[in-house]
Amino acid sequence: MVAQSTTPARGRPRLSSREMLEDAAFELFLEQGYAKTTIEQITQRAGVSRNTFFNYFPAKSDVFWVALDEVGARLRRELSAVPDDAPVMAGTRTAFLTVADGFGPGAVPWILTQYEAIGGNNEVQVSAVSRFVALASVVRFHLASRLDLPSTHPEVLAAAYALTAATIAAAQAWAAAGVTRGALTPYLDRALAPVCDGFERAFVL
Amino acid sequence: MVAQSTTPARGRPRLSSREMLEDAAFELFLEQGYAKTTIEQITQRAGVSRNTFFNYFPAKSDVFWVALDEVGARLRRELSAVPDDAPVMAGTRTAFLTVADGFGPGAVPWILTQYEAIGGNNEVQVSAVSRFVALASVVRFHLASRLDLPSTHPEVLAAAYALTAATIAAAQAWAAAGVTRGALTPYLDRALAPVCDGFERAFVL
DNA sequence: GCTCAATAGTGGACTCAGTCCATTTATTCC
DNA sequence: GGAATAAATGGACTGAGTCCACTATTGAGC
Predict the structure, then answer these.
(1) Whose CA is closest to A18, among A9, A5, A30?
(2) Would B8 be classed as within a structural domain?
(3) Is residue B186 in some structural domain?
(4) Residues of chain A positioned with their CB less than 8 A from the CB of B153
(5) Which helix (H) or strand (E) holds B156?
(6) Tens of pLDDT along B28-87?
(7) For residue A11, is it within any domain?
(8) Do residue B50 and residue B124 come from a single domain?
(9) Which domain covers residue A100, as residue numbers?
(10) Most exposed: A61, A77, B84, B149, by fewest CB within 10 Å?
């Protein structure tokens, strides 16, 4: 069983944490690159045994996505809080922007800025993509339920994927903007606007 | 060195081929599922040694994408053939649709239809999307050059990603439609239209 | 025919990610 | 002092992917 982040009342207390392993891993990735860093090295530096890594992360590449993993949950909450009478795409956009408000200039996910430095790897891209798919699926079910269409409906799927993709584009552009980047929200707004615009028109027809 | 598909004049002739390994692999995937099939089993059935597999494919999951490998090149060609005076997004859309015309009802990439049957796991789904990610970069540079904007421009990035994502959505919906699916083109058209519409408006402003 | 270069296939050893399971350790509740 | 619970560990195992040296089969030039 993968350890949860909240320590329960009973049982042996944690010696370790996702964050400790994350820190150790990021250090090593910067020093040696992603591919050359083994899980054994990570756990050694964190002062635990190799197997403990897999108590906290299902795979090596998952170490990048600690910060992002709650975004899915937050997005789900925000999406279900959208008032029923709001236009679908506009409501969805608002939900995205609300979640993005949590990301100030300092809260850039590590992987976005350090990807080049660690010799970003196919494996890493792949793990990013699976996050993408997970987010897209949250959006997809929301759209399907609001539009009263099956979640396999082509336009629903297209809209969900396009929204998610635009979000990633915004995050990349934002991270790439350097120290002057400011908040994520304006980037996201500009990226989502055309997509929402286009699909809102498609859905009212 | 990964073997090329054209047999050169000199040297030992091939005993094997990408297609032979592909066939053997697909059979086994259907029989046992993707995860339970080892490369050793694939090469045994194809009558070659394990190492030969890696002469033809860099990784197990690459066996799915033989058919898709030239799509990037074709898209690049079609994009550069777009007349200069066409509106950017409309021209891009046409190029996508032209490439898609190559995919009739029978030419469904195997993986798209058999995904469920082989116990489609995350690795496979993800390897699908990462193929398309390469396409996003082709689109991105085309848009940037036509719009005379840097390829890092937020809207350019967003448009490229959104187009690619809509394409994936179309391909999935098409494959999921079963034997009555018909051609890919109409699915793609419906998925791309809203995205192109939205960004065309954004870019003229 | 012989030799040479080129290319395909093979064998074997190796590293490391990820799985599995049994065992130990630390803690709380009773 | 148990009993229950949960974290950490040790060790064995599978399989992907890498590396490299070696063999096999061809065409070309002589």
Answers:
(1) A5
(2) no
(3) yes
(4) 173
(5) helix B154-176
(6) 999 999 999 999 999 999 999 999 999 999 999 999 888 777 788 889 999 999 999 999
(7) no
(8) no
(9) 64-204
(10) B84
